[in-house]
Amino acid sequence: MTRITILISSLLLLNACGTLPAVVGTTASSYESYKTITYIKGGVDLGLAANDKKTTDDQFLSTITGYDCKIRRVLKDGLEAICQEVEYNQKHPVLDNGGKK
Question: What are phi and psi of 83, to 5 degrees?
């Protein structure tokens, strides 16, 4: 239940970036700083998404939940597919030689 609450809260907070200027301040310099940071973050996320890597929001959400999260999965598989169990490779390439002696 706690993870679901954190997940929903994170999604709402990550999508509510428009409220940041009210918190930061209304002066011209603080708003310009906010716009600059937003443009840089958008550019970084666009570059990561174009290379099929996790965006900054995906990495943040994965860190909080402990799952493998990608927000763009919602477009193909639905809302439940955003976060999936992390699959670990059980074979160690140096220690496991596939049964050969």
Answer: -110, 130
The pLDDT tens digits of the residues spanning 74-96 come to 888 887 788 888 776 666 555 55
Residue 83, strand partner residues: 69
CA distances from 39 to 32, 34, 42, 86 (A): 11, 9, 5, 31
3-state secondary structure of 11: helix
Q: 69: part of which helix (H) or strand (E)?
A: strand 68-69
Do 70 and 61 contact (CB within 8 A), yes or no? no
Distance CA 42, CA 39 (A): 5
Dig out the tokens for 43 from the structure.
């550019």
- CA–CA dist 33, 24 (Å, integer): 10
Q: How many other C-beta atoms lie within 10 A of the C-beta of residue 10? A: 17
